[in-house]
Amino acid sequence: MGSEAFLGDLEEYCFPSSDAVHQLAAVDSALPPIYSRRVFIFSDIEAQGLNQSRSEAIRVLCHALHTTVEEFPVLANSVSMSSGTWKFLPGQARLHIRELPMSFEGLKNENFATSLLKADVLASVPGMIDFEQEWDCCRFQATFIQGGLLLSVSINHLAMDGISITRVVRALARNSCIPPKPSQENSVAAFDRSRLSSSSSVPDIAKIPAYIILSEAFDFATRTAGSISTRMYQFTEQTLAQLKSDCSLLLPPKSWISTQNAVCALVFRQIIKARLAAGILKPTDKVQYSFAVEFRNIIEPPLPADFVGNAVLFTATTFIPVCDLVAPEGLSLAAAAVRRAIQEVDAAYVDNFIAVIKSLPDPRALNFYGAVNGKTTAITSTSYKNFVMPSDWHLSLGKYEAMRLLDGGLGDGMFVIMPVRETGWEVIATLASPAMDVFEDKEWNKYARRV
């Protein structure tokens, strides 16, 4: 099942692997070396007349993680930098157990605000990893609080992207049931990353506008340094419909945008408006919006539907003058720019992306333009909008309530769209504090409210 150890106030259970199941692809090495850290919040089921046992919950989690690691062996690997290249090594997945003097009701009253979910106590890994140490691909932490449970899932982004992580979380929920609910077995091809190191294109960095080449790796920790603020906003179905209509006013004939395109356009524009109001930008500056695109079905030939790895790259809009973006027609201008950027990501785009990575002696030289030039860029690192989170977990864990990101995971100018809830869409945005102080205005409040 797993070995048990005690580390100060932590209990630790380890689930080792005997070998590295595969090696990283070129695409993997282009990602920032970060942990994707999210927390799943459960309310205590004692209120429902059921007896919640801490020991039973731990037993269930150990069983679930053991079974999930068997389904996704890469979870029990570690990653290490060697001669400028990240490599998978035999390792272990870890489950940490601790208790904290927090209350579920206190969190609920604040809509489970990210600012209350401190990474230094709810996760045992940093957001950004260094190049000198060996790092686990996967760590979980179950934190028992008054009236509930916080289950933190930290998976190294070098191991897999958000879609794969969501599949892992669904498997964990399924495997928490005893006996586990039936699942479709992963195909052999699901773990084959070789396609993401193969390209027939002549590399052209100019064709991937979200990236630049530097002489050395960029320190992503600088994006979370200094005085920054994070807020969560909620959109209702009614305000989303109005926003989509407003974004479409000046689109070319027969063009269309999705609701997600509209939300991204609005937040991008609002970030730039706030930076302009705070004196960070000038009307003559040019800005762009950069965001992740998942390409499982775009690459030729397409990857298997159950592919486990990183099938994601970043793209960006063309540069837009600040004065045009903040003008009355700027919302529709932003929406059209987002849509064009999405449409430009085709099979040739992906193939060239791989070719550029392979052409570099050190893949760390490929960096995000928006990270290096943060003041003139807004970034969506991930959208969880379409990620359906499991709600059917073992009763000993409690009742699943919500998913949140841990505090400190977003840098200045970054925002994410959270999983859709019954109350509507939720967006988490982070900005330098002077810009966040002037982020909200009459136009923004027409669509979203702070929660």
Automatic annotation (TrEMBL):
What keywords would UniProt list here?
A: Transferase
**Ribosomal protein keyword on record:** no
Top-level taxon of the source organism: Eukaryota
GO molecular function term, any single one? transferase activity
Name the species this protein comes from: Lachnellula suecica
Protein name in the entry = O-acetyltransferase pyr7
Record-linked InterPro entries: CAT-like_dom_sf, Sec_Metabolite_Acyltrans
Chain segments annotated as coiled-coil in the UniProt record: none
A Pfam match is Transferase
Q: Which residues form the signal peptide?
A: none
Transferase listed as a keyword? yes
